[in-house]
Structures are given as structure tokens and as C-alpha cells.
Amino acid sequence: MYETLAPVTHHFYPLQKYTDPADEAFAGFHDLLRGPKPAASDNMIYLHIPYCEKRCTFCPFHVRVKRDPIVYERYTQAVEREIAMLSELPYVKDMTFKAVYFGGGSPSLLTVPQIARLYDALRRSFAIEPGAEWTFEGEPTGLSNPELLEYLASQGTQRLSYGVQTFDEELRTIMNIAATVQDALNTNDRAKALGFSDVNVDMMFYMPGQDLEAVERDLVELDNCQFDSLDYYYMSYYAMPKSTFLGMEKGTYPKKPPTEMRGEMHKLVRQRMAEMGYHNVTDHVFAKSPTGSEYYRLLWGGGFGEHNAETLAIGASARGYLNGYSYANTLAPDPYVDVMESGELPVFKVSGLLKDPRNRGMVFFPKFFRMPLSRVPDDARTRLLIDNLVEAGLAVVGDGELALTEEGKDWIPNITIDFFEDEQEAINQDWIGELDSHYSNRVTL
Ligand SMILES: C[S@@+](CC[C@H](N)C(=O)[O-])C[C@H]1O[C@@H](n2cnc3c(N)ncnc32)[C@H](O)[C@@H]1O
Ligand code: SF4
């Protein structure tokens, strides 16, 4: 049914398109914020810190390398201001939160007193449930600071998340990763000693120069570490600088593995993770516990075809979803700080509303591998798409649910896009076209 993997994985739906405050969607979103919340939902807070120690060569995120205490302090003050403004909005006053996620970038670059100010501001300003899941993402050099880990543990933070990517030191150096493997191991040991219940690491396969043996070596190391959970991504190359692609052609840089190897590596990862006792809880997430984090459940609509879960976004380039609209904050950190200092809300881009809100549940269902048939919208287009998936052996229908097969799990980005409404599909095509022209590498390699 599919021949090539879709180039990007979507984490937000509907897609953000409108940037002009005069647009109907933009105005509608702002009106929404200024009125009461029409219906209860499960909600989380995502707070973004956009700075890193070094920029990893592969990283497509909106991050900046500043290493300047004045920049970090101005940013912290801007976030405090945004928290205060959001907390005054009638819509947000009606929200309660089941999870808080400090993401990045590398939030561990802030000082402990700055992090403490943000924790205090969040607690003071929002109705965060007592048992809420708190995750702090960082980068292992910062997280190996004992003072930071002790502070986070003292505040009831249950989850820590950081990038390991690979245990191959040579490849780490080539990819400009700041931390050493030892930093990553120290962080795990200290976090376990302090009682964090979920130490989560990010890993990647399909990295330059990797073959199946290289992936196997990383998997053996992972077995020794026994992390609680892992986000295991295949590496996407679209943000790699042109110079690295030229290096691949000249033989001065390790080559991108052959395309067909990505599927084989993915199968190897799934197989070994299962043998190590991990559950493949969602798309790229493996966990010792059979249920995944609240973070991904809430980010992707609530899980298993649910579509109502909401995300309140805070910080530069943070993305959120509120009552039918997804939205993005001002992307780059300096303009974000300027907007906050001018006293405006930093919302920069907003989606339109879907024709059928249940289609958000359909779009995210592949990430959870299954959904009850009772949540499937009963329209001809959805039925046809499901029939096609079943006929191609990518999904099965039975016992009151729709479920992906093992083969279907290899095509999650494509299945996700197939369930897009027509208008969303058109926005996606435009966006992919922009990516292609901006990163011409993706088409050539
Ligand atoms: C936003 S980063 C935050 C983690 C943290 N800054 C760190 O690297 O330790 C989240 C994860 O996205 C993954 N990632 C980054 N670039 C990627 C790429 N080009 N393809 C696939 N995954 C990528 C990495 O595994 C990274 O750890
Ligand atoms: S440390 Fe994480 S967020 Fe920063 S550049 Fe590397 S992968 Fe990207």
C-alpha cells in the first residue's frame, strides 16, 4: 500500500496554518481563551526551554546555543510573565492538569534557582492535580549536577528524560553530542538513587554509518543500563546541514544507511526490546511498565482514538491544543522574549477547526496501535481507508476494535496522514513542499 515512509511524524493535529490576527481561526482562538472552557477534558502543560549546550548535527528543533546567563535569565523572566498572563485567562482558569512536561532543548541548562522559580510559578498559577505526572527533560551533562537532581526529586518529579542517542563515542563526537556516555550513565545511577520512578532516555537508530551490528551493540548496552523507558527514534535527515551530505558523497563523513535498512533496524529494535522485557507502549516508546507516560497520552489526544485531551503551551516554539485549535508560540527565543516584554500573548500560528473533531482521534490512533470501533467516525471515507488498511494486511478489525498489525507498525507516519481531512492534507502538502525546498538534501539522499 505504501512504498516510501512519509518524511515527517506529526505530533499536532489539526495543522497550524493561520498567522494573521484578522484570520477567522486566529480571532476564534483568541475569543476562546477569553471565555469559559465549554467542556471538561484531560489536560497537560508543556513548557519549552529552547537552549542547548551544543547543537547536535541531526537536530531539527528550534534550539539555540547561547551559554550566556543573561540570556537564560531574560528567558526565565519571559516564561514567568507568560505563566502569569495565561493564568488570568478565563479558559485556562477552568483547566486542571494531569501532567507537566519541561521540554527542550535542554531545560537542565537553567540554574536550580531559575528552575525553582518556574516550578513555583506553575504551582501558584495553575490547578495542577496532586498526583500529576511531572517530567523534566535535559541533557546528561546538566542533569548529572547532583544539586539539580536533588531539587527535582524533592519536588516530586517522577520522570527524567534525556538523550543518549548511541553508545558509540566516535559517532557521538561526529554528531556533536555534548555529553559523554559516562555522563548518561551517571545521571541514571544518581536518578535511581534519588527515587525517580521513570528514567527515560532517547535513542536513535539509522544513524550515519550504522549497520545492524552497530544497532545491536547499542541494544546490548541498553540491556546493561535497564532504563525504565525509552523513546527509540529512527533518525530523520532532513535538518542535517548540506555540508554533511557533501561529506557523505566525498567519503569524509559516514554515510546514511541504505533506505531498506531502516525497516530491518526497526524490527531488530522491537524484537530486542521485547526480549529485554519492554512493552512497546506507543509508536516509538518502550517501557518496563505496560502503560506509557501521561505525557504522550495527553499530547496525542488522550489515547486509543480519544480526541479531547488538551495541551497548554508555554515558552518559545511550544505547541498546544485547546478545544479544537492547535497553535504554536513565537518560534525563536529572542522574538518570543520581546513579545513577552511587550505584554502580548506569544501565539504565532493557529489551526482551523476540523469538520469532525473525532478525526483527531483517528489521526493519532496509529500511535497507540489500536482503538475501540465505537470511537471510529461512521463515514464512507473513514470506512474505505480502514478497508484498504485491512486488505493490505496493515490493520485488523475484530473484538470491537481496530488494531495495526506488526507490518502496520512500520507505516505509522503514512497511516496518520491518510486519516487527515482533505483541507489538512493540502496544508501538509504545502508544508512538505516548503521542507523540500528548504532542506533539498531530503530529496537527493
Ligand atoms: C528535543 S530532543 C530533547 C532531548 C535533549 N535535548 C537531549 O538531546 O538530550 C528529543 C529527542 O529527539 C530526538 N531527535 C533529535 N533529532 C532527531 C532526528 N533528526 N531524527 C530523529 N530523532 C531526533 C533525539 O533522540 C532527542 O533526544
Ligand atoms: S541536545 Fe537535544 S535538543 Fe539540543 S541539539 Fe541535541 S538533540 Fe537537539
Give structural attributes:
Arc Repressor Mutant, subunit A; nine-stranded mixed β-sheet; 2 domains; four-stranded antiparallel β-sheet; alpha/beta; binds iron/sulfur cluster; pyruvate-formate lyase- activating enzyme; 445 residues; binds S-adenosylmethionine
Short account of what is shown:
The protein has 445 residues and is an alpha/beta fold. 42% of the residues lie in helices and 20% in strands. It starts with 15 loop residues before the first strand and ends with a helix.
Task: Record the SSE blueprint.
Layout: E1 16-18, H1 24-33, E2 43-49, H2 69-87, H3 90-93, E3 96-104, H4 112-125, E4 127-138, H5 140-143, H6 146-154, E5 159-165, H7 169-174, H8 181-193, E6 198-205, H9 212-225, E7 229-234, H10 242-250, H11 259-275, E8 279-282, E9 285-287, H12 294-299, E10 310-314, E11 319-322, E12 325-329, H13 333-341, E13 347-351, H14 358-368, E14 370-372, H15 380-391, E15 395-398, E16 401-404, H16 412-418, H17 422-438, H18 441-444
Parallel strand pairs: 2-3, 2-10, 3-4, 4-5, 5-6, 6-7
Antiparallel strand pairs: 1-13, 7-9, 8-9, 11-12, 12-13, 14-16, 15-16
Helix pairs in contact: 2-4, 2-13, 9-11, 14-16
This protein binds S-adenosylmethionine (SAM) and iron/sulfur cluster.
Explain how this protein is built.
This protein is of the alpha/beta class and 445 residues long. It has two domains: 336 residues, tm_1862 like domain (pyruvate-formate lyase- activating enzyme); 87 residues, Arc Repressor Mutant, subunit A, CATH 1.10.10. It is built from 18 helices and 16 strands. The strands form three sheets. A nine-stranded mixed beta sheet has the order 8-9-7-6-5-4-3-2-10. The chain has a four-stranded antiparallel beta sheet with strand order 1-13-12-11, covered by helices on one side. Strands 14-16-15 form a three-stranded antiparallel beta sheet. Bound molecules: S-adenosylmethionine and iron/sulfur cluster. S-adenosylmethionine (SAM) binds next to strand 5 and strand 6.
